[in-house]
Amino acid sequence: MVQKYGGSSVADAERIKRVAERIVETVKESNRVVVVVSAMGDTTDDLLDLANQVSPLPPARELDMLLTSGERISMALLAMAIEALGYDARSFTGSQAGVITDSSHGRARIIDVTPGRIQQALDAGHIAIVAGFQGVSQDSKDITTLGRGGSDTTAVALAAALGADVCEIYSDVDGVFTADPRVVPNARQQPRVSYEEMLELAASGAKILHLRCVEYARRYGVPVVVRSSFSQRPGTLVTSEANLAEENVEQPIISGVAHDTSQAKVTVTGVPDRPGQAAAICQTIAAAEVDIDMIVQNVSAPGTGLADISFTIPKSEGPTAMAALEKARPTLGFDRVVFDEHIGKVSLVGAGMRAHPGVSASFFGALAQAGVNVEIISTSEIRISVVCRDSEVPAAVRAVHDAFELGTDEVEAVVYGGTGR
């Protein structure tokens, strides 16, 4: 079994000792356990602040060396706490655990996992504690980090490599809910969610599981259980649709409503309406290593032959995208670029949409009744997403949640640690 504990679960000495007790209880049930830990509380943010205080642009290699120290502190302290309870524990950095990545500092991707030392520790009867969020570059042999949420990905990758029965992701909420409990207090916990639905929820702003973690779990068929380290509730099982069907669970039409206020909208105005222009703009953004989420092109104005193209990107990458577009403006021939950071995305996700007509009508009807103006629409087979003003996001989420009767009469959602991770 692989267990992952988030930053809020190991935020201080008392919580670390409580996690150690939980791990020991799991071992007593005849389980061999590998534990992946995040940095304590806000350690990563504090380290980033320190780096920015000493350097306006910290070198990526050295920043990774700095940030990985947070997880190493957690793993060593947790191993000490477990030893104090009379059980043998061994801590390992990501590189010692065999997490091999590419050489992209700050957002490395896992190439391979060779957990030889972890397997030896398990065979010797030890509890293996692994620092999440990090690995070692296959080419340069430098320490790398996987980006935010990378500890989730580390845990699933190790579970896949070790052939673990399950990967438990512990945070400070009891599972996957039909909406963010901070926005919708009566959100209902889901007992099971498919990989496909969880991918859409994660991509739409639900922060309970990292997108790359879910992708990895689906690829290798690793069952993931989302639980709280502050309670004994069973959590939410994330698995394949086939497994859901085998257990005769009637899948609900809608799994949840997700929202994201971390994006911005970029509008390129006065674009010549001819083949290849949208591709050229997207290629410019891609060359700047900025990810585009939603995109829409307006019909060209009569007589002008000019159109507008709008798309959403992470707010943090706005300056990079704007600089790349301004540099390419003479070549692309558009008029100007407008940056709008006061937007939010609201998404409705559910595998049951495939077989139930009228979902879109109910969704947009709820937004209309709440007075929410829709700026961009994007859909997939099991998701509908819209962009609106960021100030309208809470009202939009609650209106859609109520329209599909996703709530419960009892308050199920408790955020124990306050951060959601």
Radius of gyration: 23 Å
Helicity level, as a percent range? 25-40%
Global mean pLDDT: 90
What's the N-to-C terminus distance?
21 Å
Number of helices: 12
Share of residues in strands: 15-25%
Taking the sheet with the most strands, its summary is: 8 strands, mixed
Strand order of the largest sheet: 3-6-2-1-9-11-12-10
Number of strands: 20
List low-pLDDT spans. none
Given helix and strand content, the structural type is: alpha/beta
Overall shape: it is globular
Describe this structure in words.
The chain is globular. Strands 3-6-2-1-9-11-12-10 form an 8-stranded mixed beta sheet, with helices on both faces. The two termini are about 20 Å apart. The protein has about 425 residues and is an alpha/beta fold. The protein contains 12 helices and 20 strands. Helices cover about 35% and strands about 25% of the residues.
